[in-house]
Amino acid sequence: MKGRKEFMKDLWSKAVKELVKSRRKLQDELYALKMKHAMKGLKQTHSLKDLKKKIARINTVLTVKISENYGNSMK
Predict the structure, then answer these.
(1) CA gap 25, 23 in Å, rounded
(2) Distance CA 75, CA 71 (A)
(3) Which pLDDT band, with edges at 50, 70 and 90, does 1 fall under?
(4) DSSP for 32-51, written as a single string
(5) I need a surface site. Which of 8, 18, 51, 70 has the fewest CB within 10 A?
């Protein structure tokens, strides 16, 4: 499993489309875990928190990359 620093380096090297794909995949995984947790079948509840953090990190990188690419044309 990657550490936080490696995960962030990986995110910064990806294109915007790849980041959106990754975010969607993690959101689907989070939804599935939430459903499993609601049915009392999730043993590792910390994975919910981890996925939320990963999604937030992707959103942060996406915001920066999009503002860099399109921010200049909005001024």
Answers:
(1) 5
(2) 7
(3) low
(4) HHHHHHHTT--S-THHHHHH
(5) 70
Q: How far is CA 60 from CA 37, 53, 63, in A?
A: 27, 11, 5
| 8 Å CB contact between 19 and 62 | yes
Residues contacting 19, CB < 8 A, separation 6+: 11, 58, 61, 62, 65
Say if residues 14 and 22 touch (Cβ distance below 8 Å). Answer: yes
- Nearest-CA neighbor of 51 among 73, 74, 72, 29? 29
Report the Cα 64 to chain-centroid distance in Å: 14
pLDDT of 8-43, one tens digit each?
999 999 999 999 999 999 999 999 999 999 998 889
